[in-house]
Give the backbone structure.
Amino acid sequence: MDSDILQAFQRELTCSICLNYLVDPVTMGCGHSFCHPCLCHFGEEAQTPAHCPMYRERSQQKDFKTNIHLKNLVSIARQASLKHFLNSKEYMCVIHKERKNIFCEEDKNQLCLLCSNSEEHRAHRHCPIEEAAEEYREKFVKQMRSFWKKMRENQRNLKRENRKINQWVSYQIVHPDDHEEEKEHLETLIKEHKITIQQLKKSKVKMLQKRKQLKKVFKELMKTCHKPDVELLQDLEDTLAMCELVVLHMPQPVRPQLNAQPITGLVDRLKHLQVNFSFHNGINSRNIMLFDDVRSLIFGQDNKDESLNSVRSNFFATWGDQAFASGKYYWELDVNDSCDWAVGVCRDSVVRKNHTMIELEDVFLLLSVREEKHSSLLTTSPIFFLHVEKPLGCIGVFLDFQNESVGFLNVAQSSLIWRSPTGFLNFPVRPFFFPPADH
């Protein structure tokens, strides 16, 4: 083949990022092809993973599949380069003066034909060097794809841990009365709160350390895969051991939770304030996307890697037929063991308007929102993430216009979930309820 044509052929199989033969080649929507690990690394460093590195053209692709056609062409080009190298005098067996074109799987050594038939290696499994190189390069490629997923997962967990730290630092623990038992419980919660912040900070440090380890090994694997076949087959055991070691003990997010201990007589003291009323269906999910809005808040608007749940919430918002503007009132609502539900109150003026789009600031709720395999508990207006056990069964709602506050109780445990600060409630409201899906 003409040398100019050969060079042009090689250029077409070269990654414009690393300037080496393509490894695990992927093709973007604009038509340009790159090594998948190079594209991942470029995106992380440039903070623009959805852009073409050559012309910065934006791409909607997130998961890139290997371009098999290009991969096969690169394999052919590598084999041609390998044959040229094996024919050189520098790569002859010192003992037998034969080409070392055989790879010993047991010893991870490169041998000539006579060495492979010797007593030392005769019983071992052998294969041509080009086959061994392709096999191990493919193993390393799979490792890099796996590492990249773990790096992204670790980064997501790190962002969540940072949000948790910020939430816990600003978290307010409040109790409604001055009973001695409640004061003791409050002191316990404050101690647990301080311990939890330290746990979250330690978890963050572990995730930062793991991120450095994963990035270091990822880069090492990139370098290894770009090596010529003969060099790639050297020091295999060290490379494989390094890969196995770094994925051990992946740090998992801390799911902190304060112990909601029972408070004797808490629910009984409110029973005499209990009121009865009926609910009316008022607004469906087309008019208020409460749970999806809150999920967006939980996961973060800038996180493009996460789905906020493919199935959008479908529910009816209901409100009571009675409004309250003064006095003290208490009622209970059953949420079973569901994940998505909300109880609380809503501005009366908003409820009385027809076809009004209800915003988060118009409702004052305790919410349970599905987050992957778990649930997040929080309040609206203002937003507070609550780190107590998710209640099962009935939720108690306590309206106190004297102190201008709203409180939520875990009825089954006779414990306080949350109470708004004094001066929070200074306008007429109606009971509001987003029933669980199975209601």
Observations:
- The first strand starts at residue 25 and ends at 27.
- The first helix runs from residue 3 to 12.
- The mean pLDDT is 80.
- The chain has eleven helices and 16 strands.
